[in-house]
């Protein structure tokens, strides 16, 4: 189940962000006690001088299985990964806090555009 | 149980280090993701505090109020149930978990056992800490991902991003591709990355400037997510970050050319990117030519030329109509305002620039734009003098309005001063940066909104006739004009004021003159020869330099001895081609390696190859001048530089970082000294690799084990300091003070600069860590350096004399003669003449400008021999490094040498009359000696010394080229004897002579010209031609007379008396053998050349005790057929003479 590949590219199906990943799964190397709660596309954290630090790029949406990055515009994690399209589709099932948060964000991005 | 828990909590204190340490044992063990003691660990606890505060605050405001509403929402759910938890918890939003069950269980057990005494963390504390850790991990993930997303967003927004696939596709399908894009399109950072991610490996990208190599490598490695790896590296002269893992390398054009010299096909690279080809630097034009031929043997090589959208067709056509990808730039709109300077404010050539047009623009900006609208002003002027004039005027205005900070920018400023232009002005105040064309391309300053363009530039040109560089003011080209304008629109819409009319603009040349058309081509031609590129005249340049310019360079290289008469490389020439310095400097190094003067020569050569460390602005500061005084040497500027370097190394050894202060007090730019020490090291390595210098004892100052360990520890510490510095570098920018520009460093002078010579390093010296000191310590062993320096300190007068001779021979033919009337002139009006240029003056920075008397012929030692003839034994010449004309032709970096001795030892052409009392050197200097006897002595000594010098030099070079290591080709004894001879000749030749420059009309009928057959036959029949063993004296076909050695022609001057007339014979006793007879000067020199002192003969060949003139050296003998005796005799030249004389007398 665990895949290791030196130079495969992860690409977000929503925003197009792409970057090579070095690991796919829930237990990136050298993370000891840390376990990921979903299967993730992982790379070495390029902004840390420490070689052992990892960075999660994205994972697959638990509903539609599309490949999405962890950016807040593209997906949301709430016990599981949801792509933004699915979040919007099932928005009513999400707790109020999340709904409010998303509404607020939509508002602010709208004002930024106009 | 509950009460138990409460009691337990009470004894738990989150702020106590002991308590935290106990949790560290759970979460941050030695092999954990985050380890106790690491920077992340520290960050975690800071985060923890914040997190706890946040939780307490949230609990108090009671944010759980919304929970009830959730159930209502649930009811609307459709057919799919996501199975989400009913109660919201921020924890559910984190996709990470931390399993520490093993540790917790262990902890629980120990707690169970010693319940009463333990104050360890209970399950609540562990859980609190875990939650904080989860949030911390999530926070870090978000932060890093945010950076990545921002990076990708910026990359996507660059204009060139749209062309990504097309560019990669073109490169795959074509050997050469031109990418043309204007400022801000992102080509320099993105194209190499596109190729990297397309799978190309071993990519080299050249840059015209060193600083660009470093900054691009940094940026691109960050962007390609490899900032802590070495996938992307740079390589410049003294620094490299390249490793075996490097796939993309930024390097300078010059360095790539050097690599081609070593590796003709550049097999190490798969892709070459040549950036900024439109700047048309000498190296770049040449590189393109070399690559054009290289492509034939490397069809697999990919070449990408990157250029601004200037003259693209030229590049495409040069490479067989290579495809062009044109990318739009990203500039904000810029308003152009033409404001030609009214005639009454135009400065005439001699006057200072009128500041009024510039001040009006400052005023206009103040009136039109509110101060809270930010945006700085960049003003382009042609040179340093112009800058200080306008700076002065603007400063007065700035002091009055308190709305401007005036800052100059040019390459002769100290780096600290240059660095100020990047600092930030306080609110309501604008920077007014007054710059040379350095800010056009080399230095990029963000935040500029207004540009003022004077339309002028000072550019170096080369006058091949006078062999002189000239710095002249020109109108800029339309391309430069656009480039300057573009500087106003980098960060927002801008305004460009042009101080010329639109019609002027239209009349500008479209492009600047390429460097290859403006400069001396000596080094280029030498490099071409060494690369085996054939006849430089037939090389296909992108824009061929004038043939005359190539010819001048070839002639010069011949004069320098780098090329032989067939224009082929000599052994010294091929060595010089590998040294990355001027030919004259390279020659010094080679010459220095022969004598015991390597250390000082290395220093001088390095010092003369970098900008002067003496800051111009400090020259008028009396404190600096006094502090500098002990460093000055009236032997010449190279000696002052030598003293300065030695003293600096001394200070470095004693006080380390204290050298910074030491330099500041003396008005020295320490950066130049660092450059010198690096360059010096490179020279030393080069000499060693050519076996011109014995390798140092292999054990590097071994020391005992503790010493070695100490040094290792220190190095590790230094490396850490360097890394730390690199991490935080560039993140801090100071805010300027309002009075920043008023430090009063108005440097006056006539200098300006060439493009690209500017900033090499953006590091200001005011930082806590002196990073230069750190790098210095990493690169050099101070005590070793001190040892080397000690050798060159306190040179004896003999060593000094020899060193001067070496410098002079290196610099030859760059010699200048003091004007004969200098004694009667003011200090400031001293005049000198070179062979090709009359009436040059000494640059005010030279020691001879302040102390010209040392060049005068002492009055009491001269003898007036006529109205224009002054005899003395104290005439001197100046050997100089540069002749540069700005407002006057200036000589810089001069050293004084005794005239006659130096000329006889270094000149390429010495011509004499019959009795050798009149000599003409290089066709322009006339020496008249009073005494024939003395003249012959001097000449003869010089010829002998030169022959020996040449022999040893060739032996040294030949040995170097054969790569024999260890055994030195030149015996120490022979070398010591030669240097002794040279020193004696230089210091103790007491011959009275006059020295003057020949007027043009005098040079016309200088020589007797070709002689008739009968005359030549005569000379031959006399058996006199082989004057020197091994050298055949032939009649000179042009000058007439006899060519005795490659440089000495005897009796070719028109006033010559008959070559063999008896009246020239004078009785002479040979000091070595017992010969006593009347001889002509020629015969005498011939005898002297073959007859050596008895003592020496013994030394040379102890087995032959009976050494006499007849058997002194059998190699000197030749077969002579005497017609009178009708016998074949084996005799030396002198013996032949003697023999013939016998007959002569017997006949009479």
Automatic annotation (TrEMBL), chain A:
Which InterPro entries has this protein been placed in?
CDPF1, CDPF1_dom
Look up the signal peptide feature and give its range. none
Q: Which domain of life is it from?
A: Eukaryota
The residues covered by the Cysteine-rich DPF motif domain are 10-102
Q: Name one Pfam family in it.
A: C6_DPF
Q: What is the similarity comment for this entry?
A: Belongs to the CDPF1 family.
**Name of the featured protein:** Cysteine-rich DPF motif domain-containing protein 1
UniProtKB/TrEMBL annotation, chain B:
Q: Where is the composition biased (Basic and acidic residues)?
A: 66-81, 715-740, 1087-1107
Instruction: Establish whether keyword Lipid metabolism is in the entry.
Output: no
Q: Where is the Helicase C-terminal domain positioned along the sequence? A: 364-532
Source taxon at top rank: Eukaryota
Assigned keywords, A-Z: ATP-binding, Helicase, Hydrolase, Nucleotide-binding
Chain ranges of the Helicase ATP-binding domain: 168-328
Q: Which InterPro entries match?
A: DEAD-box_helicase_OB_fold (IPR011709), DEAD/DEAH_box_helicase_dom (IPR011545), DHX34_Znf-C2H2 (IPR056382), HA2_WH (IPR048333), Helicase-assoc_dom (IPR007502), Helicase_ATP-bd (IPR014001), Helicase_C-like (IPR001650), P-loop_NTPase (IPR027417)
Q: Where is this region: Disordered?
A: 58-81, 715-769, 1087-1110
Checking Pfam families in the record gives:
DEAD, HA2_C, Helicase_C, OB_NTP_bind, WHD_HA2, zf-C2H2_DHX34
Q: Which PANTHER family match?
A: ATP-DEPENDENT RNA HELICASE, ATP-DEPENDENT RNA HELICASE DHX34-RELATED
Q: From the Swiss-Prot or TrEMBL record, give the protein name.
A: DEAH (Asp-Glu-Ala-His) box polypeptide 34
This protein's species is Sphaeramia orbicularis (orbiculate cardinalfish)
Per the record, the gene is: dhx34
